[in-house]
Write a structure and sequence with these properties.
- By secondary structure, the protein is of the alpha+beta class.
- It folds into two domains: 109 residues, Rieske Iron-sulfur Protein (3-layer Sandwich), CATH 2.102.10.10; 278 residues, Alpha-Beta Complex (Naphthalene 1,2-dioxygenase Alpha Subunit, Chain A, domain 1), CATH 3.90.380.
- The chain has 13 helices and 18 strands.
- Strands 11, 12, 13, 14, 15, 16, 17 and 18 form an eight-stranded antiparallel β-sheet that branches.
- It starts with a helix and ends with a helix.
- The model has no long low-confidence stretch (mean pLDDT 94).
- It binds FE2/S2 (inorganic) cluster and fe (ii) ion (FE2).
- The site of fe (ii) ion has 6 residues, from loops.
């Protein structure tokens, strides 16, 4: 549990709050490049960390990110004309370039120098991995880009999905950090009951996770502080004197690396970002990639199934709170644990059911929550340090610290896998 005061500090995203200011020290992925498909295409509304903005792609192809309200009399620039290297407000024609500089003010006399003095708040935006990233922090303190492998791959090897999740970003992130839930929330009834048929199929699988993951439902979590966040070991006793170890990573501030194929060419990798829209909503961006080959149509279909279908023209999942995520009680009786189709829909159903900002002072945490506790502490500590005048945390300044891997292995029960072994397993060179 967390005090109500710490909960408020942990979950606030606005400028001027300790956590909001910490978040602003990092790049934030928020838009698929395909949402701005070509130069001078229609602008789109963006809300990020409680700030209302408008994004547009100018004539040169550059993405501009401006405060939404026109500085003249506050009309929305969403209705603006995107033309010749700038966005022109349709009310009186004032025009702004991607840096926010007013470059035309046709409602004022031609001799006026007023336009040179008017500047619309503008943020830096860059594109990488088919995604647009924003920096909402102090100018002149540009963060390092996280050195994720998928940002270095050609587009044919990467697929990114985006969905709206109507909860605070920490609540969604906690679902990623807490891998104990997958034995329940994402299980089938057979794996939960460990029926003889299921046990036989699991034993025959050559995939470590399929084979061992459901055998021990109360794994021992070993969260370790690292330069990027946490390396989270989960140890499951699987019988015959053996343990199944799984290492996932929480990376500051809102990333989770939970599945990785490399160096197995056949297996795709996946990582998630939960980017705060405001205190009560976030974007769930899931990157699927393969370092060795282009993704097949089937790979992309699997990635889309993971995210679940969205209402056309939006990123709101079709299975959502308004329709109880289309829960199928017959399926729940004998098929899947939840009766809800789709991994992300299952996550969203439980996370959104907690309310947009859960009351962490009312929780009863158990041993399986060790990683969540460690992550909350780390976030609070970094936010407080920054508010007290410390420099931005290391991962905001050095993208190379993000070079780590998901790992899994079998080890003898008594084998603690010493720190060097854990480090080696998860190092990007492994
Ligand atoms: S309100 Fe935008 S130009 Fe007047
Ligand atoms: Fe999940």
């Amino acid at each position: 549990m967390l005090s109500a005061e710490d909960n408020a500090l942990l979950t606030a995203t606005s400028r001027g709050t300790a956590m909001g200011d910490l978040l602003r020290r990092f790049w934030a992925p928020f838009l698929l490049s395909s949402e701005l498909p070509k130069p001078d295409c229609p602008p789109i509304r963006v809300r990020l960390m409680g700030e209302d903005l408008v994004a547009f792609r100018d004539t040169s192809g550059r993405v501009g990110l401006l405060a939404e309200r026109c500085p003249h009399r506050r009309a929305s620039l969403f209705f603006g004309r995107n033309e010749e290297h700038g966005l022109r407000c349709v009310y009186h024609g004032w025009k702004f370039d991607a840096d926010g500089q007013c470059v035309d003010m046709p409602s004022e006399p031609e001799t006026s120098a007023y336009k040179a003095k008017v500047r619309q708040p503008a943020y830096s935006a860059v594109e990488a991995g088919g995604v647009v990233w924003a920096h909402l922090g102090p100018r002149g303190e540009t963060p390092a880009m996280p050195d994720f492998p998928w940002l270095r791959l050609p587009p044919s090897r990467v697929h990114v999905t985006k969905r709206l999740e109507r909860v605070n970003w920490v609540q969604a992130l906690e679902g990623g950090v807490d891998s104990a839930h997958s034995n329940f929330l994402h299980a089938t009834v057979d794996s939960f009951r460990r029926t003889p048929e299921w046990m036989e199929r699991a034993r025959a699988s050559d995939d470590l996770r399929a084979r061992y993951h459901a055998l021990d439902r109360s794994p021992v979590f070993l969260p370790e502080e690292t330069r990027y966040g946490l390396r989270i070991g989960a140890r499951r006793s699987v019988g015959e004197g053996q343990c199944y170890w799984r290492f996932t990573h929480w990376m500051m501030p809102f990333y989770n690396l939970f599945k990785e194929g490399a160096p197995k060419p056949g297996v795709n990798s996946q990582g998630i970002a939960w980017t705060p829209i405001d205190d009560r909503n976030c974007w769930t961006l899931v990157a699927t990639w393969n370092e060795h080959r282009p993704l097949s149509g089937e790979d992309i279909e699997t990635a889309e199934d993971f995210a679940g279908p969205a209402i056309p023209g939006t990123f709101l999942p079709m299975r959502n709170a308004e329709n109880d995520y289309l829960v199928d009680r017959d399926l729940q009786a004998s098929g899947t644990f939840t009766g809800i189709a789709g991994t992300q829909a299952q996550d969203m159903a439980v996370q959104e059911s907690m309310g947009p900002v859960t009351a962490r002072s009312e929780e009863h945490l158990g041993t399986s929550d060790a990683a969540i506790i460690a992550m909350r502490r780390s976030l609070l500590r970094h936010a407080r340090a920054l508010a007290d005048g410390a420099a931005a945390p290391l991962p905001a300044r050095d993208g190379s610290v993000y070079r780590v891997r998901f790992a899994e292995t079998l080890a003898a029960s008594g084998d603690a896998l010493d720190a060097a072994a854990r480090e080696r397993l998860c190092s990007a060179g492994a």
